[in-house]
Specification:
7-stranded mixed beta sheet; globular
């Protein structure tokens, strides 16, 4: 598949290596309305829009959707031809942190940064461009505003304009002046029923009309325009090299590198964009230094800056309130006070008159939280305190009934003290018949009292409604005979406990082995300990020889839940009760065994897709770190249509296929219009168009009750790297020091879709096999499934 791209008219910016076609499209008869064919052919003749080449034929795919990035590329191509300037490295570097924060693909950096610099886009617009790493289709209103802002800089806009479309009430007030300009210039108008359809996705045919008409209008206009005074000042102002400004925060973001980005609307109405570098910029409120995250939208601020970088930012009025955040166990709550447990002490705070209460992320109230406590539920609470130490927000998360976690620090017949992960110590009274449970040994309460001084026992305490401990569960213990099995030979083994290693001899014929409650041979442990982390208890004789090993697969607590966060060092999951658990992962994430939707995958791929859909994961551990992840897409309701019949539908998401039964009365819509299943089946089998679908299900998700289909944009990302390996099915390249593998799309043409310093894919494979191909730089153009649709090979 060839992807749709906009080109500069002068041809100086090569965005794709597809051929520009004029009036020879095989599917030109499929235009949404007859007049569209003229504009599509003109757009091709002018070099504004490309076609697709498939199996030796040329297609325009006029009904395909257009993404926000693609539309921005078109605006950029037209405007830079008119202004005769470009997005230089300085502009791209300036806006790169913002584009990275919003996951803008690298191929769109020039267009997006240029549009931000010119005020055609503002930073908050970028939130619509991507969902995770997936490009989003653009709607008519948003793209009309982009073109309207671009043209408004030359022709001005009427800020008091009114629209006469029948659906004008559904158009945003701030969009009206720009859509009015397009109507006035006869560039973008309504349909035959005088409706603008603002929320409907814009397709390639409509983009051809916009592009051709905008281009013709601009090329008939002098290139030294002076915008009328009615043009709003939307372009970020040019700052002196240093100074002070006062205004209101429009956008505040802490970027992935820790820097602060602020868009500030000054008191005279100008827009200023500034960056605050981590470790250099300072934020203050009431004389106290705060973190970047305390800067909020609509805060009143005074900023001192130099060379575009924030030196100090002082919040003079905090709309959301500057807060301290503290987390405790909840003891009680009333309409005016909340009492929490801080270690073994209780603290009470006053509630602000407008306090917000959330229970498991749902908005609630103090009285409902009190009722939940009365129902013998247990909560961990995070309190947000204002400068008067009054609680403005309470986030309560239900915890397991009466469970506390920590290391035993003190123990007698009446009381136990544990040290929690937060470093604080907690005292609990013991029931007279308290029980001890250890999955590895038959440890008694008396044994526990005798050995806790010499052994670190990690325990879970179960309490009754009065907070009295009724059960002590040994999660694991660490000393010279309790630890993680790290090494085995035919005669020796090593365990690790409390960051120390202990090595012992053993004899195969004299040793008993029990794993997860089952008797095993010592050879089983030797064969599996490198792949599975085992926590062991050793029995040794007086010669320090091991005579018995009791082992269990290591667990650090709850190991199954929905993935909420992933980084190169940490993974967080949330269980069915709303509790969140965070675990460290192996230092080299390439060593983590990952299964995604039943297929072998890798950590980087899972990190890319978990934000788009809920993925349930089961974690396995080695040496207290996550070493294995089995993840399944739990939503799987939106993806590329791969198969369709009257009984079943198959969609493709993140490299996996999901097949569902159709309800006999399934409803179908295409581009927000009512459609029929028969028509969609015929359109899909016709082969001219691709579709993305959103599925709705019945209550038990056993059948699909509604199919919402859109024409698919196949435009994906572009990656570059040094060739590592090539075959007829895949290519491996080294990107930023990491080797990545990409497969060819099903419609990839091994002759026509390979360009550069080789004849075709066969030539590249021959050169690689002869030892010559390893000296090639490779550029891969991908579809939305990360499959190769074009390959460029250039000698390094």
């Amino acid at each position: 598949m060839k992807r749709f791209l906009a080109l500069t008219l002068a041809g100086t910016l090569l965005l794709s290596n597809t051929t520009v076609f004029a009036a020879t499209f095989a599917d030109i008869s499929k235009v949404p309305w007859p007049g569209a064919a003229t504009f599509i052919n003109q757009a091709a003749d002018l070099g504004l829009m490309n076609g697709y080449s498939e199996n030796g034929r040329k297609y325009c795919k006029p009904r395909n959707n257009v993404t926000y990035n693609e539309a921005t590329q078109l605006v950029y191509s037209i405007l830079k031809t008119y202004y005769k300037d470009d997005a230089n490295e300085s502009i791209i570097s300036k806006w790169k942190p913002i584009m990275v924060a919003y996951h803008i693909p690298t191929w769109a950096y020039s267009a997006v940064s240029y549009s931000l610099e010119k005020g055609i886009l503002i930073t908050t617009d970028l939130s619509r461009f991507m969902k995770g790493n997936v490009q989003q289709n653009a709607n008519r209103e948003d793209i009309g505003v982009m073109f309207g802002k671009a043209l408004g800089k030359i022709y001005g806009v009427d800020m008091n304009a009114k629209l006469t479309y029948k659906d004008a009430a559904t158009i945003g007030k701030t969009s009206v002046p720009y859509l009015d300009l397009l109507f006035d210039k006869k560039i973008m108008v309504g349909d035959d029923y005088n409706k603008f359809n603002p929320k409907k996705n814009i397709n390639r045919a409509e983009m051809a009309v916009l592009s051709v008409k905008s281009y013709k209008l601009l090329t008939s206009t002098p290139t030294t325009p002076t915008p009328p005074s009615t043009t709003p000042n939307t372009t970020p102002s040019t700052l002196p090299s240093s100074g002070n400004i006062t205004g209101t925060v429009s956008v505040a973001m802490v970027l992935e590198n820790g820097d602060l980005f602020c868009s500030i609307r000054t008191n005279d109405g100008k827009g200023i964009n500034l960056f605050g570098k981590k470790g250099t910029a300072k934020v203050y409120y009431d004389g106290e230094q705060l973190g970047f995250s305390d800067v909020g939208t609509n805060d009143a601020v005074t900023v001192s800056y130099a060379n575009g970088d924030i030196q100090t930012l002082t919040i003079t009025k905090s709309v959301g309130g500057v807060t301290n955040k503290l987390t405790y166990d909840l003891v009680s709550i009333s309409s005016s006070r909340v009492t929490v447990k801080d270690g073994s002490k209780e603290k009470t705070y006053s509630l602000d008159d407008s306090v917000d209460v959330y229970i498991n992320e749902n908005l609630s109230s103090p009285s409902k939280l009190d009722s939940a406590l009365s129902d013998k539920k247990y909560f961990s609470v995070t309190l947000h305190l204002n400068k008067d130490d009054k609680v403005t927000k309470i986030y309560a998360t239900e915890t397991k009934k009466g469970e506390k976690f920590g290391i035993i620090k003190d123990l007698d017949d009446k009381e136990i003290t544990i040290k929690a992960s937060n470093g604080k110590s907690y005292d609990y009274k013991l029931s007279s018949d308290v029980r001890v449970y250890d999955s590895l040994t038959d440890l008694s309460f008396r044994d526990l009292k005798r050995h806790y001084d010499d052994t670190d026992y990690y325990v879970t305490l179960t309490t009754d409604s009065k907070g009295i401990v009724t059960k002590i569960t040994i999660d694991h213990a660490e000393d010279d005979t309790h630890g993680i099995l790290t090494h085995m030979t035919s005669r020796r083994l090593t365990i690790k406990a409390n960051n120390k290693e202990y090595t012992y001899n053993y004899y195969d014929r004299d040793i008993d082995v029990e794993i997860d409650g089952k008797t095993k041979d010592i050879s089983y442990l030797k064969d599996h300990y490198e792949d599975t982390s085992y926590r062991v208890v050793l029995t040794v004789n007086r010669d320090d020889e091991v005579t018995k090993i009791v082992a269990t697969e290591e667990s650090l607590g709850v190991n199954k839940g929905i993935i909420k966060y992933m980084s190169n060092s940490t993974i967080e999951i949330k269980d069915s009760k709303g509790n969140t658990y965070s675990y460290s992962v192996l230092d080299d994430t390439d060593d983590i065994a990952v299964t995604l939707n039943g297929k072998s995958s890798d950590y980087e791929k899972l990190k890319e897709v978990y934000k788009k859909y809920d993925h349930e994961a089961t974690l396995s551990f080695k040496n207290k770190e996550v070493s294995k992840i089995v993840a399944t897409n739990e939503e799987a309701d939106k993806g590329e249509l791969r198969a369709l019949s009257y009984d079943e539908i198959t969609i493709y998401i993140d490299g996996s296929k999901f097949t569902y039964d159709l309800d006999e009365d399934v409803e179908v819509e295409l581009e927000d219009d009512d459609y029929t299943l028969k028509k969609l089946i015929n359109a899909f089998n016709d082969g001219y168009d691709n579709f993305t679908v959103k599925l709705s299900f019945n209550i038990d998700r056993s059948k699909v009750t509604r199919i919402s289909a859109d024409y698919a944009s196949e435009y994906g990302d572009t990656v570059k790297g040094r060739l590592v390996e090539v075959s007829h099915s895949k290519v491996r390249i080294k990107v930023d020091g990491r080797t990545k593998t990409y497969e060819f799309a099903s419609r990839f043409d091994k002759r026509d879709d390979v360009i550069g310093d080789v004849k075709d894919l066969y030539d590249l494979i021959d050169r690689f096999d002869d030892g010559d191909g390893r000296d090639y730089d490779i550029k891969l153009e991908l579809n939305t499934d990360d499959e190769i649709i074009k390959l460029t090979a250039e000698r390094a």
